[in-house]
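Session log. Operator J.P. requested a structure for one protein chain; no other inputs attached. Running the standard single-chain path with token output.
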Amino acid sequence: MKRTNCVRSVNAVLACASCPGDDAGGSLRSAGVVTPSIVPQATRLTTMRLLALLHGLGQTPQSWQDQVTELPPGFRAVAPWLRGMRPARTEEFSVEGAADDVLALLNQYGVEQMSIVGVSLGAMVALDAAIRAPEAVSHLVLASGQINPPRSVMRMQRLAFSLIPAKRLAAMGVEKRRFLRALDAAAQIDYRGRLGAVTAATLVLVGDQDRANRPAAEALAAGITGARLEVIPGAGQQVNTDNPAAFNKAVYDFLASAPPRRSSASMGA
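Structure written below.
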């Protein structure tokens, strides 16, 4: 059974989430999804929880289709392009810049906190936001994430991806040049020693077939206070699309049951 039966066209919803200027606010709102480009600046969420869905490297906002169709009541979700990843745009990708865009959603919708779910590159962006603005993130889901990617692995990945024809990536909605630059930026991150800054209730997910990210998943769960690690069966790195049913259950059960942790700032108030 679907968690919500009010979705008219999920494809249209996520297409609009990635296409500023398209007027499909009705479909977005009916599906419980809002985007900065569609919803007026004055819009405020007063009775619903804001949920940011951050796509991975090689994915697009459309990759969240299976999560949007199962969105629980009480949530409004936004699935944006990460800065520098959208084709035909001039800005370059950086983890910090993308995290700043995510945190800007708080002012956009007039809320003090949000929940963030990130996969792969999106998990790195989500982690950066939770480290630099712990008071802004109530719940954090890190899927297929990294703390300090092994340089040898990143070099091999870059070489492999550089051999993929640009047309093949374009068919997936991904621009090869941006893809490789984002891969280079991700290779430079290092959150070792900074995980203690995270105060959000945290769930770490990794696919049982994702050997490359398993050590990082274990390190994230060990380094973030109160974090829990869950392995998703039948899934690789793109865990949200490899096994959406198991992914959705893990994420939405966590968001429903895990109380938000208080930041050190709020505890000192």
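Operator note: The chain is about 40% helix and 15% strand.
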